[in-house]
Amino acid sequence: MKSIKITTNGRITIPAPLRKKYKLTPGKKVRFEEAENGIIITPLFTKKEIKAYAGCLGLKVKMLRSLMEEKKIEMLL
């Protein structure tokens, strides 16, 4: 993996192969977490993605709502 410069505004460009692999599209939200050896960037699921996955898995509505509430809380942190 090549190194990336941070701009004066604190921005970075995620390499295209990683954006494609993790489906990081414009507007996608991510979470930054501090780790012992660096920073972890985790993509967050949208409501639409959660509903799509729930449909594939045949999850019940109550479970889906619970998961969506949990993700909403994570997005606020």
Question: What would your notes on this structure say?
Answer:
- With 77 residues, the protein is an alpha+beta fold.
- Helix content is 43%, strand content 16%.
- It is built from 3 helices and 2 strands.
- It has helices at 16-21, 47-57, 61-76; strands at 30-35, 38-43.
- Strands 1-2 form a two-stranded antiparallel ribbon.
- A hairpin with a 2-residue loop joins strand 1 (30-35) and strand 2 (38-43).
- The protein is elongated.
- The two termini are 29 Å apart.
- The mean pLDDT is 81.
Overall radius of gyration: 15 Å
Q: How many separate domains?
A: 2
Uncertain runs? none
**Spatial arrangement of strands, main beta sheet:** 1-2
- Strand tally: 2
Structural class computed from helices and strand pairing: alpha+beta
Instruction: Indicate the mean pLDDT.
Output: 81
Reported by name, the CATH topology of the largest domain is Pemi-like Protein 1, Chain: D
Q: Termini separation (Å)? A: 29 Å
Helix proportion of residues, in percent?
Answer: 40-55%
Strand content: 15-25%
Query: Order of SSEs, N→C?
Result: HEEHH
Number of helices, where a helix is a run of at least 4 consecutive DSSP H or I residues = 3
Outline: elongated
CATH architecture of the largest domain: Ribbon
CATH class of the largest domain: Mainly Beta
Tell me the major beta sheet: 2 strands, antiparallel
